[in-house]
Amino acid sequence: MAPDQRHRTPAAVVCGLGGFLPPQVITNDDLGRVLDTSDTWIRSRTGILRRHRAEPGTATSDLAVEAGRRALKSAGRDGEDAVDAVIVATTTPDRICPATAPAVAWRLGLGTVPAFDVGAVCSGFLYALVTARSLLASGAARSVLVIGAETYSAILDPGDRSTLAIFGDGAGAVVVRAGTPDEPGAIGPAVLASDGSGSDLISVPSGGSRDPFRAATGDRADPYFRMQGKQVFRQAVERMSECSRQVAERSGWPVEEVDVLVAHQANLRILQAVADRIGMPRERCHVHLDRVGNTAAASIPLALADAAGEVLRPGHRVVLTAFGGGLTWGAIALTWPDVSPA
């Protein structure tokens, strides 16, 4: 592409931010009363102190609507013409069919805008953000609401301490608009990747077309989220480190000059290992999981909402990175804008 054409191609600029956590809080001690676990065991292995749980009857769309509403308010947008598209990244849609995003757009009063889901598990928000950038670059949209939302409590095995202790529910959202590449908030270089040979490392075995819920499945049916933790740990550290370095290099930023790393909030030891591997001081890696757990596709926008105005300052060089089931992973670089969550 010629330089003048690149100049004319709109960039995606973050202009709104919002997050929402359901009010119910589950502490490590709460889990210890119903499982063979303890606060010490959970803290030492994950760094998590508590997580939020959706009440019975609360669906992913309910969390997504609230986070989306806050992001739109932060961006100063309302009415049917507030945005031109809605993308919801989630592993836990309201139903297998239809997608969750159209209902979210309708409930937000956004009219008949195109709305669709992205399924890339914990990398889903980054995949959705790059998709939004493509809509803006092509001229198909002038602004997009991107939401990461999860109710992982709906798919966790109530007897599996290894997953029940880790995951939480919540939603985070950003509004991106068409702008110029040199604006604060403009999404810069991005890397997305996948490796389907590891698809069984993170999965919900039953419920899809491979193993439908039918009477014939009998005892084989497994509707719960399963994860092979040791292998996932190694892959997560390797992949997030690699793509974080790549986007920093493509931005012309020495890693030591990156101000904040906002990585998928999976596990404190993973976050620390990624920071160590890329040569970044651990204190520059924002940690939010101690208070909310692993919220999968919602974790990066929730961490951004938590960091905005405190850790994140306008002009900061920021790298976002995630790793999830699929296997999928990715990273995005951007310079932080003057934006605060509503």
TrEMBL record:
EC number(s) recorded for this UniProt protein: 2.3.1.180
Record-annotated active site: 122, 264, 294
Enzyme class, UniProt record, top EC level: transferase
Pathway where this protein functions: Lipid metabolism; fatty acid biosynthesis
CDD domains assigned to the protein according to its UniProt record, in alphabetical order: KAS_III
Pfam families: ACP_syn_III (PF08545), ACP_syn_III_C (PF08541)
InterPro entries the record matches: ACP_syn_III_C (IPR013747), ACP_syn_III_N (IPR013751), FabH (IPR004655), Thiolase-like (IPR016039)
Domain Beta-ketoacyl-[acyl-carrier-protein] synthase III N-terminal: 116-196
UniProt KW keywords: Acyltransferase, Cytoplasm, Fatty acid biosynthesis, Fatty acid metabolism, Lipid biosynthesis, Lipid metabolism, Multifunctional enzyme, Transferase
Reaction catalyzed: malonyl-[ACP] + acetyl-CoA + H(+) = 3-oxobutanoyl-[ACP] + CO2 + CoA
GO terms, molecular function: beta-ketoacyl-acyl-carrier-protein synthase III activity
Domain spans labelled Beta-ketoacyl-[acyl-carrier-protein] synthase III C-terminal: 249-336
SUPFAM superfamilies reported for this sequence: Thiolase-like (SSF53901)
Compartments it resides in: Cytoplasm
Xref: HAMAP family: FabH
Family, as annotated: Belongs to the thiolase-like superfamily. FabH family.
Domain notes: The last Arg residue of the ACP-binding site is essential for the weak association between ACP/AcpP and FabH.
Function: Catalyzes the condensation reaction of fatty acid synthesis by the addition to an acyl acceptor of two carbons from malonyl-ACP. Catalyzes the first condensation reaction which initiates fatty acid synthesis and may therefore play a role in governing the total rate of fatty acid production. Possesses both acetoacetyl-ACP synthase and acetyl transacylase activities. Its substrate specificity determines the biosynthesis of branched-chain and/or straight-chain of fatty acids.
Subunit structure: Homodimer.
Protein name: Beta-ketoacyl-[acyl-carrier-protein] synthase III
Gene source species: Streptomyces caeni
Organism lineage string: Bacteria, Bacillati, Actinomycetota, Actinomycetes, Kitasatosporales
Gene (name only): fabH
